[in-house]
């Protein structure tokens, strides 16, 4: 394992901590939202700042980037939409009465969750509130969205009451519950009970009808999003579960206990623990067999996702790393120290590709040996049968 030395580039334009980092779907731009009340747009081609979005009256808590528009939410109780080319504010969404924690853009909808105990749905284009989801007893921290078409069979769909829209919103709250809502009516479809602490993170696997929730009660819980049934409880963490990542039926969980754990979703078995963090694990990102983590110890790390071996430590930040992104073999880390740092991970990626290629080759030879062995055993069996006159 080697240490990284210094970053390829350090971007110091923000005057306050960076709370979130979003990558556009086409991979051409990054958006950072900061404690300084502004958002900045960065090109992944030259790592330069190409946009400065000003207008919020307090710090930005979260941001989301589409190819043509940027969205930010703030402690000033509002959400803003920005033109990524001109930097112009295109819309201000008003209605929340406290800090807006999270936003989610899906289809023509903009969803938001707030300390005012509500989630809301807005028309992206018309700048107006479509629906309010009221029922949580405390602040809404995390959001997910899906359509019943993604999870229900045709005959099940016909039985559903909601004919106009089959979109559903999932909310996680500090009141220890997860709620599922019909977007069209604002009606609560299900309340998922079981956590005994605040729900900090959600991951949705709609094709498999599963929802994963992480909590300050140290557990991750899996739910059937059609029936509301609790399927499994993952219990090995010794601290709050802060972040989740789901890849190929492997669930990665980052915790305040300074570890990441990998679980097999289908069995609930914990198959790997990634250690070496000196503080809480605040963010996770899986990329090509490598697990990247950001921590409260101001370091990012790269682990071999299969073996759990620590491959590299990225040092340079002064405070907690709040968010990470990976694009074109570059690692982007955004920190509460106000900097965006860019790291070259080509070496790690190449080593990992060689390792995967070698493993596949070994597996291929093993499989071939197994086939030859079975063929040999079959022949021996036939000879024995012939000798016995069978």
TrEMBL record:
Q: Where are the WD repeats?
A: 11-43, 93-132, 168-191, 192-233, 234-273, 314-346
PROSITE patterns referenced in this protein's UniProt entry, alphabetically: WD_REPEATS_1, WD_REPEATS_2, WD_REPEATS_REGION
Instruction: Give the coiled coil ranges.
Output: none
Query: Which species is this record about?
Result: Tyrannus savana
Q: Which SMART domains match?
A: WD40
This protein is called what? WDR86 protein
Domain of life of the source: Eukaryota
Q: Which UniProt keywords apply?
A: Repeat, WD repeat
What InterPro entries does its record include? WD40/YVTN_repeat-like_dom_sf (IPR015943), WD40_PAC1 (IPR020472), WD40_repeat_CS (IPR019775), WD40_repeat_dom_sf (IPR036322), WD40_rpt (IPR001680), WDR86-like (IPR044715)
Q: Name one Pfam family in it.
A: WD40
